[in-house]
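Note to self: user wants both folds in one dump. Writing first protein now.
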Amino acid sequence: MMDKYSLPRKIAIYFCIALFLTFMLLPFVEMFIASLRPLTHLFHRPELEVGETMDFMDFISRFWSDKMSFQAYRDMWVTVPQLPRYIFNSVFLATAVTIMSLIFVIPAAYAYARFSFRGKSVSLTLFLAVNMFSGAVLLIPLYKLLRMYGMLNTYWAMIIPGVAFLIPTGIWLLKSFLEKIPYELEEASFVDGASRLYTLRRVILPLAVPGLVVVGVAIFIGAYAQQFLFAITFNQDRDYMPLPQGIFEFIGYQDVLWNEMMAASLVGILPVLLIFLFLQKHLIAGLTQGAVKE
């Protein structure tokens, strides 16, 4: 596909891609380097002081240290002994939110994709409106509701709000995938005597697997990212803390273990990276599904 572009345009395209990747990956590179540095080296100023001169190697040495090591990746498990529990809680909460969201999203998206009913456009617009508001706006009413039903300091205190906020996004995404599936396949199933529920389960969902993977991953990432806001408000029990809340334990009364905090943050990113690694084939298929000829 790139062969149809002239050389200057190819250079411009690759330059823009490299620039975009640089801005995207640079924070993670800095996190990794910070996790390797000793604390005494973390706050060296890389810029020149007034009247100070240095050569290029001296400048590089302020970013890179001979004392760099993976010690922080070993010490973090000692500093915060419950760190494995926090990582498990994060993965469990994101998985639970994803499964529960899909249970509601699949029939709702199918209904919006296949049926015409009064208020369809209005309700879809309202779903988008929900995503316009930050979760912080509803923290106080959510806190009162969860306290009323005795759900504070439980997994449910973080699962229920997560599901409520991510269902609208899931419906919009999956609806567009289901609309690409030819309706003639359902008609043929109805002619053979199949019910609508059977058709959804045996005909539509197998064809929509790439779309379901894309929606599921999007919900998982959203659930994984929004844990801090709900956890810090609705949970104070360490047994239910997710990783974003547990990372606060690296902040002491007099100092902050920045290198161990960066190491724990990078380890916490691994579950999402592994999901992309194992599901990338389905993700690519789902993202390109719109090119199917009907």
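First done. Writing the second protein, which came from a different request thread.
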Amino acid sequence: MDEDAAAEPVKVAADGGRQQQAFDDPRIPWTGKPGRADILCWAGIMLSGIFYWVILPFRASLVGTHPVFLVLLNGSTEGIVAAAAFARIGHGTLIVVLLAALVGIMKFDPLFWWAGRLWGERVIALFGGRRNRGAKYMAHVQRWGRKFTWPAVVASNFLPIPSAIIYVIVGWAGMRLVTFLILDAIGVLLWAGMLAGLGYALGHHAVVVAQTISHYGLWISIGLIVVIVFFQVRSQRHMMRTASEARAAQQAGVAQQAGAGVPAEANVPAAEGQQLDLRTTRRQGTVRVPRAGSPAIAASSSPAATRPTSSRCMSMLVSEG
């Protein structure tokens, strides 16, 4: 009964560890069981990625035929340049191009701001990748505050890093949603205005290039998909390897804790000169053997101890009786 009672807490702890392990995956930004807000935000981010994957095969074909619609879908650089070039030759206006760019670029940005508010440093580390770029920007936020976060949001489209990292950092830093949307809109208009000015200046030449790209759009799309799939698979393998190493380390820690919880009497060495205890417990049907290195093991390994004697056999029978 005592051993069963002692084993039960260990079993419960192990089950709790498995349940915690199921919700503590390094590929997800939360710890523990997710709430409704966690599921909604993460589902929105996943759907945004799927959305861009779905429209990827159509980008090359739309850039020379319907560039404004392409800008409205994903706010692509080539779409803004092409739409402004078409506006130069009389197909559309720059105001429509800028408004389409405002919607196309900003439509998923609040999701990443929300992710920063919900999950903080964990999602920053997740989006930071192998280089852990988010940690460097977090240090800048802690040092400079608004002097860093406000210009970072405005310049996020010009920086050579994913804008999502900036958005989750400012969400973690506590920037209000209205402030974030205003700063993000200013940055998008500056970025789209620069691209639109380039396309308007190129005019007919940019239109010819866009139409040529659309003509070979199928092959360009296939090439883009192959390259993206390659890098995504490699990144996924790295994440799986990291997760398996973390899981193995966690299991080793649980096993070590379970080993430390073994009753102390199992580790008590036999007394000096004590013979090998082969008493069989009738209730449990187990044989208790002293720990390796004890005097009883040393005595039993000697030639004299291996030869049965009548006194030893008698003592064994008495002890079993």
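Dump finished. Worth passing along: The two ends are 23 Å apart (CA to CA).
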